[in-house]
Design a protein that fits this description.
Dehydroquinate synthase-like, alpha domain, 14 helices, about 50% helix, about 10% strand, Rossmann fold, single chain, two-stranded antiparallel ribbon, 6-stranded parallel β-sheet, alpha/beta, about 375 residues, 2 domains
């Protein structure tokens, strides 16, 4: 008698997701569940969140400017140790949340970030004792509050890599769409397209599973509904809610499946040219999708093609991959997404970008192994 086996997968998530407009008011009570000496990690202008920080009394604060570097993480870890913090709160975009996550993983020990950084560091397991942390995103993009890795830039090596471990999952992800209302249009565009990319890549990857499929489908639907509206009118709470939910779902999906060529390139390019992660992803998404579809068609992989067709139906209402490609092109144009050349990538560095992209972990999740020529096609099409 033959036997059949169902799907087998592992799923990890934050201890709790608290979602909804106005729910950031619950932050003081949530913090009090885990400690009495919070360190708040936030952006370079803490006054943007003055009311929220004031609700915590007089917390110690560490600021992050731009993408998190090894130096910035070390400074924030030192701030936590000096304050004898017993809980970490990240209030900001993906860079802030990644920094908060790294601080939570390192501050309770004598570890240095490079001890645990993948690729260019030692990649050691995280210390057994970590601090609890709460993620409060103020952009709708990376879904970092949902994941167990912190992306850190080594300026010395020109590389972005991760500190990773199950213990980096947040105790609470507190997602309040109202905190994204002040995001400027360019940030709304880049972060929202990053969230969309994460849902699409996690949906077509060969490492998807039934749970991530559900998150991706709903995330794609929310992005189709909310992305352009949130860009056109930042005060549209319904659109902001759609995108906040899309981002959260994308984080759950990527943490438990894989991504693909867009993120395979985005990490290395971030280290090479110093541009913001979300903007790089937005620039790459149309060309990477187009090259993937062409490669899948040429090499006869119907499973992933069917996924792209389903995504097209969710986003455009038409079960036609051409409609999806047209929607992505049009969205990038409407949202003013710059090309990679405008972000600092030059033709003489394309070979370097391809080599680094091929070695990245995200590239291994792409639904088909792309040739060097196909990878070059993605970059060249995204230059302009």
């Amino acid at each position: 008698m033959g036997t059949t086996t169902g799907p087998a997968f592992t799923f990890a998530a934050p201890g709790r997701l608290v979602f909804g407009a106005g729910r950031s008011a619950e932050l003081p009570d949530l913090v009090a569940e885990f400690g009495v000496r919070p360190l708040v990690v936030t952006g370079s202008n803490p006054s943007r969140h003055a009311e929220l920080l004031a609700s915590l009394g007089d917390p110690a604060v560490a600021t992050v400017k731009g993408e998190p570097t090894l130096g910035a993480v070390r400074q924030a870890v030192d701030a936590a140790r000096t304050a004898e913090a017993d809980v970490v709160v990240g209030v900001g975009g993906g860079a802030v949340l990644d920094t908060a996550k790294a601080v939570a993983g390192l501050a309770a020990s004598e570890s240095d970030p490079l001890d645990h950084l993948e690729v260019v560091g030692l990649g050691l397991p995280l210390p057994p004792v970590v601090l609890p942390w709460i993620g409060v995103p103020t952009t709708a993009g990376t879904g970092s509050e949902m994941t167990n890795n912190a992306v850190v830039t080594s300026l010395e090596h020109g590389v972005k890599a991760s500190i990773r471990g199950r213990s980096l999952l947040a105790e609470v992800a507190l997602v309040d769409p109202l905190l994204t209302l002040e995001c400027p249009p360019a940030v709304t565009a880049s972060s929202g397209l990053d969230a969309l990319t994460q849902c699409l890549e996690a949906y077509v990857t060969h490492q998807a599973n039934p749970l991530t499929d559900g998150f991706c489908r709903e995330g794609l639907r929310r992005a189709a509904s909310g992305l352009r509206r949130a860009y056109a009118d930042g005060s549209d709470v319904s659109a902001r809610t759609d995108m906040a939910l899309c981002a959260a779902l994308s984080g759950l999906a990527l943490a438990n499946a894989k991504l693909g060529a867009v993120h395979g390139f985005a990490g290395p390019l971030g280290g090479m040219i110093g541009a913001a992660h979300g903007t790089i992803c937005a620039s790459l998404l149309p060309s990477a999708t187009r090259v993937n579809v062409a490669a899948l068609t040429a090499r006869g992989d119907g499973t992933a093609l069917a996924r792209y067709t389903e995504a097209a139906e969710i986003i455009t209402g038409r079960g036609d991959v051409a409609a999806l490609l047209a929607w992505l092109d049009e969205t990038n144009e409407l949202l003013g997404v710059p090309g990679l050349a405008d972000l600092g990538l030059t033709e003489d560095r394309l070979d370097e970008a391809v080599a680094k992209g091929q070695a990245s972990s995200s590239m291994k999740g792409n639904p088909i192994t792309l040739t060097e020529d196909e990878l070059q096609q993605i970059l060249r099409a995204a230059l302009d």
